[in-house]
């Protein structure tokens, strides 16, 4: 397209006449941006227009620019960003005018700036805002923070759309049929773009809010819900008012929002949400005439108004003939009747010249339009071909992306399981280290206690010696008294000497008694200090130990909300065993605490019970979080941790120690055990003594089924080579050849599985026979049987599907689904075998290599099937060269309706598939080998 022709169309579309922008001029501008891959010509023409001095001109510029941002070339946004500051200044300037188009232009310019900012920040959103649910998820990059910010930006975008909507309606006199006047259509025509934008923004807001409510607390999103409710009521009212206007009835079908807004607090309400769709009837476009008059839409007009239409047309061109009309000469001073007549005659002549020029212009425009329509048809045909090629590429890309995501998901699951195991080992090591530190502290306390006992023994020994000395003194005193009586008969001199000696001994005795009393007081003081110090050390150590136990339980509670610890598959039997152990440790701690309260000097029996209590409560919480059941079990585990912390707080508080009660903890633990008992997967109805024979039978049956399947495929291939030729033979060889490779890989897998199974049974940990081994490991055996059955069944079903496809009666999709099922069954068989195998087993390595070959060949079947499908399907060539614009528009609308129906059906099928998988996981618990950890 020539730039000069585009400039002419821009000037015709953006003019000072108060009438709606003609669709043909706007369409030419849009095609021009696609032709030159940008908006350089558009802005070159617009910069020469006096947008700041004429409000109508600025209003129509906003309308055309809005169309270009929606439907023009993607580079329109890039080329327009350099003029953003000028648009902001222009909006601020028009905002000073409170009447007429001033406020309308100011708000419209702000809306356009907001639209450019939104698409700059979110380049995944196209200008017309049409996106699929998958593209909407990709726009947020699976990050809840991105979805939260995106919702805020959509709210801001919608706010300016609604402001313009409301301001246009406020500026119109709704008591008259303004939608059939040129001035009214000038103001209403941009609202078509606003209605299209709002329908998409509302739909995306609802979907994003449901996604946010599934990830974040409801209190966090209260502001979002309040803002949505306000915009919902405004948009509902504006849609209703717009649908009653005659102007919109002829151009588009406006959807009506539901009576009540969606309930985001109920996740299932998303399925009740219906995306609003704006339908544009074919053949209807804004009229190109300057003025439309529909008599049955006008209010207060009688039959005489029909005769005044020519005069009204004259007024539309030259203005009103009343007092406000500049051509109303009745109020002009100094003008005669002749002057008026001459002026009117002159104006009629000029009008005739203008009509001639208008006729020539219309003829030229008609020729240009015909040329453009031919070019449009060529471009649309080319566009259709490109779309078809793009759809093929997208389909192939989707398949490859699906395969990649499946491999990534499996890899992530494996990594998560390894991380979970590593974390459990780390936790165990940390607990062992913490227990070692506690043992060291306890040993130090015992050593300190022993030192104090030794000191006490020394003091006691000194006291004993003092008492022995006192006894000697008493005996000496008694002997002296006896001697005194015996020598009383002796001479006075001897008596005096004895009395003197006795007085000396009495003084020594009194001194000895004083020393003994001092020693006794010192001993009592030392003993009291020793007892006090011992109690303080024991109390401090007990408090420190309780804090450590609280830390263990708090750390386990924190893991409840971490995805890494809620994605395991711990068996319910193991959880029940942990619960029983926790109940036992709780009762032991309660008994030890009661003994401690009766004799506070004894804490030797309390410390091991306290440490064991913290570790076993932590085990219950961790294992309950990894059982992947309902929220009921997770909440019970959290309650158990809370009750345990409350019990420890009671033990730490001296004022509450006497009333400590552990009954709440044991009740919660029993409740957890009851829930786990309900969640136990049903066991296969097989007697343990029959398991050994059944394993051999099932493995033999699987091998026979695979052998039969391989033989059938070989026979079908021979028959096809005999009976078929050309493309059919090529197709059959490609499909059956890939199936043959897959069957050979499955046979190798079965042989490797048998060898590994034999190795596992031979190293079965004391079992005297294979039957005893299988009976002792019944859960694992049942899982192995289920996996073996699944592999044999998948091979049989694949052969049946291949037979039907070769005969032309089956579906290619059946082969693809069978391939995926075989790959999944293979992974199940490897997982069941790996549970009991040694890590360094060569047979296990051979089984894993065989599993990889099966997966590779299964992918080969899928690739061959899709390649064959694309070869034999006939693709209708889309030729739109002979279709009219109306026919193309009709088919476009039909395609949009079909796309919406298919998307709705796809969503329902995905939900159904999710429920089926959930039910399958519940029923196949034994088959998956979930009970192995308890054995």
UniProtKB/TrEMBL annotation:
GO cellular component: clathrin-coated vesicle; cortical actin cytoskeleton; cytoplasmic vesicle membrane; nucleus; presynapse
UniProt GO BP: actin filament organization; apoptotic process; cell differentiation; clathrin coat assembly; endocytosis; positive regulation of receptor-mediated endocytosis; regulation of cell communication; regulation of signaling
Residue ranges constituting the I/LWEQ domain according to the UniProt record: 683-924
Recorded GO MF terms: actin filament binding; clathrin adaptor activity; clathrin light chain binding; phosphatidylinositol-3,4-bisphosphate binding; phosphatidylinositol-3,5-bisphosphate binding
Quaternary state and interactors: Homodimer. Binds actin. Binds HTT (via N-terminus). This interaction is restricted to the brain. Binds to IFT57. In normal conditions, it poorly interacts with IFT57, HIP1 being strongly associated with HTT. However, in mutant HTT proteins with a long poly-Gln region, interaction between HTT and HIP1 is inhibited, promoting the interaction between HIP1 and IFT57. Interacts with CLTB (via N-terminus). Interacts (via coiled coil domain) with AR. Interacts with AP2A1, AP2A2, CLTC and HIP1R. Interacts with GRIA1, GRIN2A and GRIN2B.
Localization: Cytoplasmic vesicle membrane; Nucleus
Function: Plays a role in clathrin-mediated endocytosis and trafficking. Involved in regulating AMPA receptor trafficking in the central nervous system in an NMDA-dependent manner. Regulates presynaptic nerve terminal activity. Enhances androgen receptor (AR)-mediated transcription. May act as a proapoptotic protein that induces cell death by acting through the intrinsic apoptosis pathway. Binds 3-phosphoinositides (via ENTH domain). May act through the ENTH domain to promote cell survival by stabilizing receptor tyrosine kinases following ligand-induced endocytosis.
Keyword annotations from UniProtKB, A to Z: Actin-binding, Activator, Apoptosis, Coiled coil, Cytoplasm, Cytoplasmic vesicle, Differentiation, Endocytosis, Membrane, Nucleus, Phosphoprotein, Transcription, Transcription regulation
One Pfam match: HIP1_clath_bdg
Classification via InterPro entries: ANTH_dom, ENTH, ENTH_VHS, HIP1_clath-bd, I/LWEQ_dom_sf, ILWEQ_dom, Sla2_fam
The keyword Nucleus belongs to this UniProt entry's keyword annotation: yes
SUPFAM superfamilies registered for this protein in UniProt: ENTH/VHS domain (SSF48464), I/LWEQ domain (SSF109885)
Methyltransferase found in the keyword field: no
Location, primary (coarse class): membrane
Protein name: Huntingtin-interacting protein 1
Coiled-coil regions listed: 337-529
Domain called ENTH: residue spans: 1-126
Domain of life: Eukaryota
SMART domains named in the record: ENTH (SM00273), ILWEQ (SM00307)
Family, per entry: Belongs to the SLA2 family.
């Amino acid at each position: 397209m020539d730039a000069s022709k585009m400039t002419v169309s821009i000037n015709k579309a953006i003019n000072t006449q108060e009438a709606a922008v003609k669709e043909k001029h706007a369409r030419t501008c849009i095609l021009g941006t696609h032709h030159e891959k940008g908006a350089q010509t558009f802005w070159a023409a617009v910069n020469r227009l006096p947008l700041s001095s004429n409000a109508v001109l600025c209003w129509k510029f906003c309308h055309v620019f809005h169309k270009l941002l929606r439907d023009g070339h993607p580079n329109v946004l890039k080329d327009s960003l350099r003029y953003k500051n000028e648009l902001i200044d222009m909006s601020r300037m028009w905002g000073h005018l409170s009447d007429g188009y001033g406020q309308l232009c100011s708000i419209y310019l702000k809306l356009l700036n907001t639209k450019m900012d939104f698409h700059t920040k979110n380049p995944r959103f196209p200008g017309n805002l049409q996106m699929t649910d998958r593209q909407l998820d990709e726009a947020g990059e699976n990050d809840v923070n991105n979805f939260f910010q995106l919702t805020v930006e959509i709210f801001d975008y919608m706010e300016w759309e609604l402001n313009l909507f409301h301001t246009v309606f406020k500026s119109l006199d709704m008591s008259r049929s303004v939608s059939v006047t040129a001035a009214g259509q000038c103001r209403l025509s941009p609202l078509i773009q606003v209605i299209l934008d709002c329908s998409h923004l509302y739909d995306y807001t609802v979907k994003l809010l449901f996604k946010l409510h599934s990830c974040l607390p409801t209190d966090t999103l209260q502001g979002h819900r309040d803002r949505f409710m306000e915009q919902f009521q405004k948009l509902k009212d504006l849609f209703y008012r717009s649908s009653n206007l005659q102007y919109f009835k002829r151009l588009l079908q406006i959807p009506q929002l539901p009576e009540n807004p969606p309930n985001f607090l109920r996740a299932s309400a998303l399925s009740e949400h219906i995306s609003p769709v704006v339908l544009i009837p074919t053949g209807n476009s804004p009229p190109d005439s300057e003025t439309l008059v529909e008599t049955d839409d006008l209010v207060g007009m009688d039959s005489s108004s029909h005769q005044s239409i020519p005069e009204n047309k004259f007024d539309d061109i030259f203005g009103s003939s009343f007092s406000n009309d500049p051509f109303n000469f009745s109020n002009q001073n100094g003008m005669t009747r002749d002057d008026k007549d001459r002026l009117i005659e002159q104006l009629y002549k000029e009008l005739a010249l203008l009509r001639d020029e208008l006729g020539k212009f219309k003829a030229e425009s008609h020729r240009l339009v015909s040329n453009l329509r031919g070019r449009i048809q060529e471009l649309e045909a080319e566009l259709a071909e490109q779309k078809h090629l793009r759809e093929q590429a997208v389909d192939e890309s989707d398949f490859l992306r699906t395969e990649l995501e499946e491999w990534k998901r499996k890899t992530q699951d494996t990594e998560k399981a390894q991380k979970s195991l590593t974390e459990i080992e780390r936790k165990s090591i940390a607990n062992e280290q913490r227990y070692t530190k506690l043992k060291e502290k306890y040993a130090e306390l015992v050593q300190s206690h022993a030192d104090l006992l030794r000191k006490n023994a020394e003091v006691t020994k000194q006291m004993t010696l003092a008492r022995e000395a006192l006894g000697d003194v008493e005996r000496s005193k008694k002997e002296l008294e006896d001697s005194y009586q015996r020598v009383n008969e002796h001479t006075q001199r001897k008596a005096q000497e004895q009395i003197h000696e006795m007085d000396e001994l009495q003084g020594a005795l009194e001194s000895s008694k004083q020393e003994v009393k001092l020693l006794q007081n010192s001993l009592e003081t030392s003993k009291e200090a020793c007892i006090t110090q011992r109690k303080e050390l024991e109390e401090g150590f007990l408090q420190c130990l309780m804090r450590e136990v609280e830390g263990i339980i708090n750390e386990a509670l924190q893991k409840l909300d971490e995805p890494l610890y809620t994605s395991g598959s711990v068996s319910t039997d193991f959880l029940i065993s942990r619960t029983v152990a926790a109940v036992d440790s709780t009762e032991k701690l309660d008994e030890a605490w009661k003994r401690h309260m009766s004799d506070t000097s004894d804490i030797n029996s309390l410390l091991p019970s306290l440490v064991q209590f913290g570790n076993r409560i932590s085990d219950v919480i961790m294992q309950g979080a990894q059982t992947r059941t309902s929220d009921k079990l997770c909440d019970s585990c959290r309650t158990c941790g809370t009750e345990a912390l409350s019990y420890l707080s009671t033990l730490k508080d001296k004022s509450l120690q006497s009333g400590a009660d552990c009954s709440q903890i044991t009740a919660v633990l029993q409740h957890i055990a009851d829930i786990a008992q309900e969640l136990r997967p049903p066991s296969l109805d097989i007697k343990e003594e029959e398991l050994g024979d059944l394993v051999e039978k099932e493995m033999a049956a699987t091998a026979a089924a695979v052998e039969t399947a391989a033989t059938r495929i070989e026979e079908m291939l021979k028959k096809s080579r005999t009976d078929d030729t050309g493309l059919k033979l090529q197709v059959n060889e490609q499909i059956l050849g890939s199936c043959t490779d897959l069957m050979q890989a499955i046979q190798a897998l079965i042989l490797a599985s048998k060898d590994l199974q034999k190795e596992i049974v031979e190293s079965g940990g004391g079992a005297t026979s294979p039957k005893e081994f299988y009976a002792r490991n019944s859960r694992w055996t049942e899982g192995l049987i289920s996996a073996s059955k699944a592999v044999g069944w998948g091979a049989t079903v694949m052969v049946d599907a291949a037979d039907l496809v070769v005969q032309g009666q089956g579906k290619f999709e059946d082969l693809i689904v069978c391939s995926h099922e075989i790959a999944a069954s293979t992974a199940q068989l490897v997982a069941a075998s790996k549970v009991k195998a040694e890590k360094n087993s060569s047979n296990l390595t051979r089984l894993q290599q065989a599993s990889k070959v099966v997966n590779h060949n299964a992918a080969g079947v899928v690739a061959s099937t899709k390649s064959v499908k694309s070869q034999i399907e006939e693709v209708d060539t889309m030729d739109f060269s002979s279709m009219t614009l109306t026919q193309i528009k009709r088919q476009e609308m039909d395609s949009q309706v079909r796309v919406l129906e298919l998307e709705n059906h796809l969503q329902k099928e995905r939900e159904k598939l999710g429920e089926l998988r959930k039910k399958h996981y519940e029923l196949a618990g034994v088959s998956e080998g979930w009970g192995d950890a308890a054995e």
